[in-house]
User: Fold this.
Amino acid sequence: MSTPPPSSIDNKNGSISALQSEGAFQTLVESVRDYAIYIIDPHGYVVTWNLGAERIKGYKVSEVLGRHFSIFYPAEDQEKTDWELQVAKQEGQFKVEGWRLRKDGSRFWADIIITRLNDADGNLIGFGKIIRDLTEHRIAEQKYRLLVEGVTDYAIYSLDINGYVTSWNTGAARIKGYSAEEILGRHFSEFYTPEDVAVGLPQRALKTAAEEGHFAAEGWRVRKDGSRFWSSVVVTAIKDENGRITGFSKVTRDITDRKLLLDEIQRHAEELELRIAEREQTNAELEAFSYSVSHDLRAPLRAIEGYASALDQDYGNTLNEEARGYLHEIQSAATRMNRLVRDLLEYSRLSRNELPIRPVHVRSCVAIALKETGEPEASLSVSIPDDVRVSGNEQTLVQAILNLIGNGLKFHKPGERSHLEISAEVRGNRVRISVKDNGIGIAPEHQARIFRVFERLHGSEEYPGTGIGLAIVKRAAERMNGSVSVVSQLGVGSTFSIDLPKSGSGTA
Ligand code: ADP
Assistant:
């Protein structure tokens, strides 16, 4: 069953005709408090006046009836009154917002509708005026506008739905170089580079903002003088209460300085990478060179050593003291050179060869290394739990430990034997293998450089060596995804440690 039309209710209870009477309507209008509703005659003289009009404008009915409506207009708008009525007369309605005067001379912001009133024949009999006091709204809006306008670090402006500029703040003027008068009404694509305009970027920005609510990007924009700046932009769609898009707001920041700085950093990083690559290339070439030189030196060296010892054995007793002295010099020089060549080859082999990484039993490695030094295990303290395994390469780890033990024994205080403590401890997912001695120690300023090739702190008469041993340890540790470090005090002793991944905690 559908709801009966109003006329049928009317017929049943007979009250509608009463409601439709002018008296009822007038009562309603008169009692409205939030709107000033009144009628003026065709010449603008007030004919009726409701409660809202009295409240908003401050005049009582008796004070205002028969007076011209221009009394509500400030001096600067007096000449507009005739024109407004003219428009309402011709168009049927006129809408405007503006400052109006109360009886006490104070102003209020009015939202006004003037409607033409006709008699039954369509002749003009006057105008209805409906006015809302929007002063509070207006003040809030103005405060907000002043706030936005005063911002200087951001360009904040609005666009109509087609992208034409409708407002412009101080920041926009400062960043883009246009004054408000110059740019209002112009299309925002003027701020884009010709390249971006050609690929339709301005339209895309509005389309994305319309579809997704906002659009954010960084890019080059053009100032009035043609110069470019790197901007960070956010475009937001502005919607009315029905969700229809009425325009867009744009907030732009000039971040050229940041961009240039980032570009500079990027350029430096690229340059650095290039240099590192060049250096790596040079290093690789040098290593290849030293490898082949060392390799090729071995045959003539062996010949020198062999012939020198043959000479010594076969003709040693026929030589005089001086000649034998020379021969021994040749032999020990050849031995030194042999050691050097061996170490150099070992060092370059470490970077050239593939290193198979497997679980390695640390205690066994130490035992093998000790055996090679010929040092009885009893002369040192070894404290390595039997179950410690690292992820590494056995041969390489033995070599590294051997070098550390060799150094520990070698760099003893004059006239003393060094005591060595070899230990291993698990630290989280790493294992630290340490060789501690109570030898001569190393001054802090030298502790970093001793890991470089050929860096020695002593003459070979004092402590013989090639200066490659620690470089081998360092490279060995790194090839096994580990590292090496030293803690030392001059005259007290040193502890060298190799840190390696614990077996089972990653690679092997
Ligand atoms: P080498 O032992 O052949 O001289 P290394 O590369 O093994 O070369 O060591 C470089 C230098 O570091 C040594 O010459 C020495 O001066 C110093 N050094 C190494 N180990 C120790 C140590 N345990 N105690 C004191 N100094 C050491």
In short: Confidence is low (pLDDT under 50) at residues 1-12. The first helix runs from residue 6 to 13.
